[in-house]
Amino acid sequence: MNPYIQVDATSPIQLPKKIVICGCPYSGKTSLIRRFLCNSFVEEYSKTNGIDVIPSSIFFGEVIIHYNIWDFPNWEINKDIVNRYMSKTDAAVIVFDNSIESYHYCLKWIDVLHQIYPDTRIFAIQNKYDLIKKYDSNWIIQCINELKQKEVPYYQVSSKSGYNVKNCFNEILKKLFDISTTTPLIDPLETQEVPEKKYYCKNWFCSYQQL
């Protein structure tokens, strides 16, 4: 069954983008995805053993944009893994937490991606912002400067509290699809009425809730 509800065959539609969420183990990658897509948070830790691919959509203007989020497992970063699974990636979102070890792991991801797929757009997300006061902030200032030198956009979020998660991903999507920063994005799950002349996908929601 086609998961897309066709409202008007003349409506403009784009092919889905591939967005890979990767980074340091235990940095809250899956929790970050769940917060963005489902606006929920689960305290219990559940290790991601394989790659989960979650299709989603969001409206802007008269167009609906489609993207697939790849939830990457805690595999050791190496060139073989990157060659096999990061091919044709439109955006790599590298997640780390408040430890300097986690940040160094993020840098390793960035370096390997730059070597193998230099055209892939990279974004860095520091998760667990709600716990940031427990850590030394000096290295955070350092990491901000280093990421700026590498021309990697940097965001601070908290998947637990929801702080800045939606704004962060909306900004990433706008950059990825070359959308004006002033154009509002409309999540299909937040509106009860489906705009006319649109495509709309929601089948991923129930299945992803059960992961």
TrEMBL record:
It comes from Entamoeba histolytica (strain ATCC 30459 / HM-1:IMSS / ABRM). This is Rab family GTPase. The keyword Nucleotide-binding applies. Keywords: Nucleotide-binding. The keyword Aminoacyl-tRNA synthetase does not apply. Signal peptide: none annotated. GO terms for biological process: intra-Golgi vesicle-mediated transport; intracellular protein transport; retrograde transport, endosome to Golgi; retrograde vesicle-mediated transport, Golgi to endoplasmic reticulum. Pfam families: Ras. GO terms for cellular component: cytosol; endomembrane system; Golgi apparatus. InterPro entries: P-loop_NTPase (IPR027417), Small_GTPase (IPR001806). One of its GO terms (molecular function) is GTP binding.
